[in-house]
TrEMBL record:
Gene3D superfamilies: Stage V sporulation protein G. One of its GO terms (biological process) is sporulation resulting in formation of a cellular spore. It holds the Pfam family SpoVG. InterPro entries: SpoVG (IPR007170), SpoVG_sf (IPR036751). This is Septation protein SpoVG. It comes from the Bacteria. Residues 149-177 are annotated as: Disordered. The lineage of its organism: Bacteria, Bacillati, Bacillota, Clostridia, Lachnospirales.
Amino acid sequence: MLTPEQIAAEERRWLFDAPIAELAEVKGVSIDEAVKMRTDAVLQEAVVPITVSVRPIEPQGKLIGFASVNFGGVVIDDFKVVDGKNGIFLGAPSKPDPASRTGYRATVRIPDRATQERINAAGVEAYHAAVEQLVTRAQAVRPAPIKEQMAEAAKQAGKENAARPAPAKAKEARNDR
């Protein structure tokens, strides 16, 4: 007697590893139907690469940025980066629609929960990376505080004064008169 795991492994082997003719024979279908079965299974198993780039903004309520999401070569702009009560997530792009209940209509829908979670995870990571990059840039161009500037100027002036020759004494200059 085969266990459910063994049955699933055998099904998987037939769908992905066995020759098409054997798949058709085992399933009792034509070669064309077996090819369609394998193609559907491969497409279902395929993971589409998702990359996200984020542009942080000065927070406007819960809105903290905008993002572009690349789904394996298709780029969708204007996702909203929102800091909600359960953390940061990406909201789908929308446009004004006076006929809707909220006044806006989503222009992109992601019905698959797993895909939405992958987008959110990539968006959170991209947001934190973008903010870290902005902080690093700001620290690089930010001038030093006034106290540090004054201390550095005093140190530099001390070095310059030490390098100058001592001035001539004033009394000696008067005796020549």
